């Protein structure tokens, strides 16, 4: 599969007004895995090409968690998933827990963005477990993308290859507003994470009067050139982890040669090695490449509790023991909610990010380099590129209050992006940094309460004044220290 840590991780000019062609009847009772109570499910038939209402159509699926109170408020919360390519419905169990208080009086709505989940999915998930040897093959990812495209073009909702160009953000937000209309909501609140923040910003651009408030967790702005920023921000997060270990006495004592171990590991590549697969347990012999190691190191950086295991994993890998490194990577990627629809991912990135790659001011990381940029350039060369409307990458002053959240340790959407976007949005935007959080902060410590108080506040002034001082007190997980043989826990 396309390098999953990168995907873990981001239209037609003159778009027609948002319009639901027809509703497939009233909401129906349904169940969603991981949610114990009954929900309500619906579908809308939407034009594949918004400029051609008489052409091909697709189905947009969505799920509503009804408000608990009978006298509910009229402005529901729409949850926007990340990726790009993540299903919103897949994160329902987590988000319903985080927004439990807000749900007392507001519906929580999960719309699977076109190309994901229940909405004309462009998924190419291979049910077989990829071996470590397969991951090391240099042309494997390109061949997977070509095979993915061939499989997708056999699906009834894709009449031709050009149809893959209608799965971009600017088209998708029209589906989102069509669901709003179908539900009879005059305005909505948006809660987006990672790529979902780009969706929220585009919704605000196209439908400013339909937005009440928005929470942007891990800001991925529309003018970001994903592969370039990915290298820059990933390098900064990794360097910060090494520096933090050197500055913390316990970590420095446990791993006194961590930087040297890292240089030794990279300097030894590529090389033939043997290691157990983290999920199957099968011992494999394969060529360990620099790209594999960088991907394995990057994935845990998203979650500080996993990143705490990196010093031990790097020290072991420098001695030829690679199971810890691949194990940390697998812990993040094996989560079902982290699965990404590859086709939708490429339809977004190839149209919205790649064209800006050569103009990006982001310098490649000293070690992470340009490998990901080169990879995406190759993959996008065989993928249809949709049109992006004029003004898509412009960020204007917001009418609706927006709460922007950034994790200080985030390797993908660090505070520099949130700070810049907040300044462009103007006085109705507030940026909160959680210094010791990674990618996504809503679920960390007190932040779920901050988010809910922002949404539930009775007026805009109260929303923007919500107390978020608790963010500074959230600690960084200490570096993991494995017990030595025969040692007692202490």
TrEMBL record:
Residue intervals of the AB hydrolase-1 domain: 76-223
Keyword annotations: Hydrolase, Signal
Name of one Pfam family that matches: Abhydrolase_1
InterPro entries linked: AB_hydrolase_1 (IPR000073), AB_hydrolase_fold (IPR029058), Pept_S33_TAP-like_C (IPR013595), Serine_prot/Carboxylest_S33 (IPR051601)
GO molecular function list: hydrolase activity
Gene3D superfamilies documented for this protein: alpha/beta hydrolase
Residues annotated as domain Peptidase S33 tripeptidyl aminopeptidase-like C-terminal: 374-455
Superkingdom: Bacteria
Signal peptide: 1-20
PANTHER family, sorted: 2-SUCCINYL-6-HYDROXY-2,4-CYCLOHEXADIENE-1-CARBOXYLATE SYNTHASE (PTHR43248), TRIPEPTIDYL AMINOPEPTIDASE (PTHR43248:SF29)
Family, as annotated: Belongs to the peptidase S33 family.
Protein name per its UniProtKB record: Alpha/beta fold hydrolase
Lineage, broadest ranks: Bacteria, Pseudomonadati, Pseudomonadota, Betaproteobacteria, Burkholderiales
């Amino acid at each position: 599969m396309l390098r999953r840590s990168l995907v873990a991780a981001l239209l037609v000019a003159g778009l027609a007004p948002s319009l639901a062609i027809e509703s497939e009847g009233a909401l129906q009772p349904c169940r969603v895995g991981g949610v114990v109570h009954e929900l309500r499910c619906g579908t809308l038939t939407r034009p594949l090409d918004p400029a051609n209402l008489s052409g091909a159509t697709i189905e947009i699926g969505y799920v509503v968690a009804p408000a608990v109170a009978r006298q509910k408020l009229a402005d529901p919360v729409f949850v926007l998933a990340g990726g790009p390519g993540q299903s919103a419905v897949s994160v329902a169990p987590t988000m319903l827990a985080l927004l439990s208080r807000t749900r007392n009086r507001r519906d929580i709505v999960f719309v699977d963005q076109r190309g994901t989940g229940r909405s004309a999915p462009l998924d190419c998930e291979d049910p077989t477990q990829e071996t470590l040897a397969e991951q090391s093959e240099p042309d494997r990812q390109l061949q997977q993308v070509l095979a993915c495209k061939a499989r997708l073009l056999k699906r009834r909702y894709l009449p031709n290859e050009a149809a893959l160009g209608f799965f971009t953000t600017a088209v998708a937000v029209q589906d989102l507003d069509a669901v709003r209309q179908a539900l009879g909501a005059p305005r909505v609140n948006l809660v987006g994470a990672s790529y979902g923040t780009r969706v929220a910003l585009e919704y605000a651009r196209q439908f400013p009067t339909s937005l009440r408030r928005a929470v942007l967790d891990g800001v991925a702005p529309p003018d970001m050139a994903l592969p370039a920023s990915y290298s820059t921000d990933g390098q900064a997060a990794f360097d910060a982890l090494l520096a933090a270990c050197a500055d913390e006495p316990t970590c420095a004592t446990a791993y006194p040669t961590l930087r040297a171990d890292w240089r030794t590991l990279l300097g030894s590549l590529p090389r033939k090695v043997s290691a157990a697969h983290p999920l199957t347990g099968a011992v494999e012999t394969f060529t360990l490449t620099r790209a594999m190691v960088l991907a394995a190191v990057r994935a845990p950086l998203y979650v500080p509790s996993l990143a705490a295991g990196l010093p031990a994993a790097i020290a072991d890998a420098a001695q030829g023991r690679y199971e810890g490194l691949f194990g940390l990577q697998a812990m993040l990627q094996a989560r079902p909610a982290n699965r990404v629809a590859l086709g939708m991912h490429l339809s977004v990135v190839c149209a919205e990010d790649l064209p800006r790659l050569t103009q990006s001011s982001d310098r490649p990381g000293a070690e992470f380099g340009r490998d990901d940029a080169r990879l995406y350039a190759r993959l996008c060369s065989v993928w249809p590129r949709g049109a992006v409307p004029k003004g898509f990458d412009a960020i204007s002053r917001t009418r609706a209050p927006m709460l922007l959240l950034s994790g200080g340790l985030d390797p993908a959407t660090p505070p520099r992006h949130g700070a810049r976007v907040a300044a462009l949005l103007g006085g109705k935007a507030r940026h909160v940094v959680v210094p010791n959080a990674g990618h996504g902060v809503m679920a960390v410590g007190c932040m779920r309460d901050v988010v809910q108080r922002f949404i539930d506040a009775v007026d805009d002034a109260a929303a923007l004044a919500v107390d978020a001082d608790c963010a500074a007190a959230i600690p960084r997980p200490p570096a993991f220290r494995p017990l030595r043989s025969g040692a007692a826990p202490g």
